[in-house]
Amino acid sequence: MAPEHTDQPFSHGLTARILVADDEPRLLNTLASLLRSRGYDVAEAHGGRKACELIDQQTFDLALLDLRMPEVTGFDVMAHLAIGQPDCGVIVVSGESSFSAVSRALRRGALDYIRKPFDPEELLATVESVIGKKSLLEAHEHIQMRLEKSEALHRYIVNSSPDIVFMLDQDGHFCFVNSKVESLLGYKPAELCGQHFRHILDDRDVTRGTLALKGPNITADNPRTLEVRLKTRGSRRATRHFEITAFPIDPQTWPHSGNTQGGGSGNGATYYGTARDVTERKEAEAFINFQAYHDLLTRLPNRALFKDRLELAITHANRGGQKLAVMFLDLDRFKVINDTLGHAMGDRLLQAVTHRLEKCLRKGDTLSRFGGDEFTLLLPSIHNHEDARQIAKKLIDALRAPFQLGDHEVFVGVSIGIAIFPEAGETMDQLIQNADIAMYHVKGKGKDGYRFYSDSMSIDTANRLNLERDLRQALERDELRVFYQPQVCSTTNRVVGLEALVRWQHPERGLLYPRDFLPLAEETKLIGQLSERVLDQACQDVGRWIQEGHTHLRLAVNLSPIEVEHPRFVETLMQQVKAHNFPAGNLEIEITENVIMNDLEQISQKLRELAALGVRIAIDDFGTGYSSLNYLHRLPIHTLKVDQSFVKAIRSGDDGACIVNAIVAMAHGLKLEIVAEGVETDEQLDYLRSLGCHQVQGFFYGPARPAAEISRTLGSTRAKAASF
User: Fold this and answer.
1) Pairing of strands 164-168, 271-277
2) Rounded Cα–Cα distance for residues 274 and 163 (Å)
3) Are residues 435 and 472 in the same domain?
4) From the CA atom positions of the chain, what is the Rg in Å?
5) Biggest CA pair distance of the chain
6) 139: pLDDT confidence band, cut at 50, 70 and 90?
7) Cα 717 to the chain's mean position, in Å?
8) Cβ distance 169 to 198 under 8 Å?
9) Which letter, b or e, does each residue of 62-99 get, where b requires 16 or more Cβ atoms within 10 Å of its Cβ?
10) Bigger pLDDT: 152 or 344?
11) Which helix (H) or strand (E) holds 344?
12) Are residues 21 and 83 in the same domain?
């Protein structure tokens, strides 16, 4: 159906026919009611499709269009008007405020733009103004008015834009740029005009930026969009990221005015566009990406990034027939420091450890924090095992010196397992797992060292898993036994003390000794439960013998470093002792020198607390560790135990006896008691007696025995060699 036409031409003062199109019914009704209140003849179109139908049926003097409408947009309606009713004026009433949308609407013939939510008075004034000017256009000034309006709107948009607005000639030189460039980049508009736009491009983006405008298929509806870095003037501010949108234009149709703020007139322009600062968005994206692949505490690659790099390194090694190494690093004593000094100090320690480790790396190596106090290290393109060995030694040496955390000086070591590609695994998971297995073998041998993975370790690992399972069940089934080895006065043969030693009555393997399962207990953190069982039983047994009349009988208990280093060590120990009403003065704890020297300050405080409660302190295996006279003099030490390796060296003319001589003499000088371990022969006993070593223990008096046999022995007033 052809649209209805009125014979009477529209002129200012007569009722104007207005089409209102919007996809929101409430806004549509509000806008139509407002216009009717001023006497306008209004037709309502709910959506762009309905608007096109009304345009085909009726003639309108003015159309108020929303740009964002489903299916048929405001731009589509404008195109329909341009074909069917080219004399109909258009006012855009929309929430769309982007530069490209407004610019496109103006190029399609819009006479004005009103942003939602609109002010009613402003909208009515705009409609009245447009209708008034439209009547002038119909009086042969139509084209001039549109040019003026378009220029005014462009000028307003350009001067108020939060973005840099620019124009370039066909060679890429600035022929206009607005004043926003000064606040964002520090350049005055006038100094940029005549300069090629690569003048402000970051060097890394010059090639990409200059080629962008030369690409095909750049049109007004398909502008060139790209992200580049632009240089700020001087070095006061960093390079910033911008999103560039550039449109081609016909220089002959570009209206320009001297009133526009900025530099240049726009003469000769071939492109115009905007540059929007997206630095904050890029920085946020970079930070999110960093979080996804890095550990925020140490700034090291995390597990995900390490695996990515390892996969790539394996691919390269396969292609080039090369070797690579994966190291699994686990810090020794970190948990104790973290629990004792707090997580804040633990975090500072991890950062300090990272700093030292990074100094040992080669270019191309990847150090990763795998989690907690575990690190992994990728060494690509190594020649042989020796390359990895040298790096491992450097890492161990780097962590050997103490760390200063506030007022605290702490020591940590590192256990390193090494897996070499392809011998120790051909896949990422195999290499990491086998390096981990090798690291646990270092832990089992005393920590603070390195080992290469070998196939035999897999067998050991399977046995270890079975043994760990059995050990957990042993604690549940009460399979642990406490044996006692007497400490005897060498002159009277009287039992003066008993050292509690644990045994495991394994249901299949028989009686197991500490060396068979204690390292595993420490590694799996079961040592605490195990020691608690041993101390409970020992307090019951020895406490009963003390009550039966052996009031001076001493109970010696050997404690692991993990127990002593725990923050609640003293509190936990004394709770157990008090629970059995065991006299603290009859308890002697045995610790090694290394435990003391690992954290002298903290351990010293704990030992003083115990000594103040009456507990005796003995240094076990004396002579095999630091052997510092300084700590012996400063700490409440009561007893030195001479290691059995020195006692075994007591033979005619053997130099080992000299060490025993020195230890006994030093103990006498410091007024300390001394116990010689591992005494097996008359010759050793006689020699120790001659030195004044009055307490001994060892196979000379028999091996450690169950409580029932000790009870029978204590029934006698004197301990006889044959009794043991």
Assistant:
1) antiparallel
2) 6
3) no
4) 44
5) 140
6) low
7) 66
8) no
9) bbbbbbbbeebbbbbbbebbeeebeebbbbbbbebeeb
10) 344
11) helix 343-358
12) yes
Token pair in block for residue 74: 């405001």
Structure tokens at 420: 């070499």
Same domain, 501 and 588: yes
User: Any bridge partners for residue 176, and if so which?
Assistant: 167
CATH number of the domain residue 115 falls in: 3.40.50.2300
Residue 259 has pLDDT above 60, yes or no: no
Question: Pick from 398, 418, 453: which residue ends a domain?
Answer: 453
> Which of 128-142, 215-229, 257-271, 536-550 has maximum average pLDDT?
536-550
Is 28 within the bounds of a domain?
A: yes
Read off the pLDDT of residues 356-399 as tens digits, 9 standing for 90 and up.
999 999 889 999 998 889 999 999 989 899 999 999 999 999 99
Residue 163 has pLDDT above 80, yes or no: yes
Report the 10 Å Cβ neighbour count for 187. Answer: 21
47 domain residue, yes or no? yes
For 409-425, what is the mean pLDDT? 90
Q: For residue 235, is pLDDT > 60?
A: no
Query: Do the Cβ atoms of 374 and 329 come closer than 8 Å?
Result: yes
- Cα(423)–Cα(431) distance, integer angstroms: 9
Residue 717 has pLDDT above 90, yes or no: no
The CATH number of residue 320's host domain is 3.30.70.270
What digits encode the pLDDT tens for the residues 54-76? 999 999 989 999 988 988 999 99
Pair 444, 502 in one domain: no
Element (H, E) at 480: strand 480-489
- Looking at the structure, do residues 339 and 419 belong to the same domain, yes or no? yes
Write out pLDDT tens, residues 75-109.
999 999 999 998 888 999 888 777 777 888 888 88
- Domain-terminating residue out of 453, 485, 510: 453
E strands, 321-430, where?
Answer: 323-332, 366-371, 374-382, 403-405, 408-410, 413-421
Tokens linked to 60: 């309108």
Answer yes or no: do 686 and 705 share one domain.
yes
Query: What are the structure tokens assigned to 376, written together?
Result: 């992994």
CA–CA gap between residue 327 and residue 306 (Å, rounded): 12
CA-to-CA distance for 469 and 516, rounded, in angstroms? 14
Pairing of strands 639-642, 673-676: parallel
Q: Up-side HSE of residue 132: CA atoms within 13 Å toward CB?
A: 6
User: Which range scores top for mean pLDDT: 361-375, 448-462, 585-599?
Assistant: 361-375
DSSP letter at 3 equals P
- Using DSSP's 3-state secondary structure scheme, residue 358 falls into helix
Count of structural domains within the chain: 4
Is 74 domain-assigned? yes
pLDDT in tens, 462-486: 677 788 888 999 999 999 999 999 9
Q: How far apart are CA 453 and CA 431, in angstroms?
A: 9
Can you give the residue range of the structural domain that contains 113?
Answer: 17-139
Domain containing residue 234: CATH number: 3.30.450.20
Place of tokens 């930026």: 209
What kind and span of H or E run contains 561? helix 561-565
Residue 198 is assigned to a structural domain of this protein: yes
Residue 124 shares a structural domain with residue 227: no
Span 220-231, average pLDDT: 79
At 8 the three-state DSSP class reads: coil
12 pLDDT band, cuts 50/70/90, is: very low
Rounded to whole angstroms, how far apart are CA atoms 15 and 232? 56
Q: What is the mean pLDDT of residues 612-620?
A: 92
Note the pLDDT tens digit of each residue in 275-304. 888 888 888 887 888 778 888 899 999 999
pLDDT at 527: 87
Q: For residue 253, which amino acid is it?
A: T
Beta-ladder partners of 230: 201, 240
Q: State the sign of the Cα–Cα–Cα–Cα dihedral 220, 225, 228, 230.
A: positive
Q: Does residue 183 share a domain with residue 134?
A: no
Rounded distance between C-alpha atoms, residue 12 and residue 6, angstroms: 15
| Joined tokens for residue 104 | 């496109």
Provide the whole-model pTM.
0.47
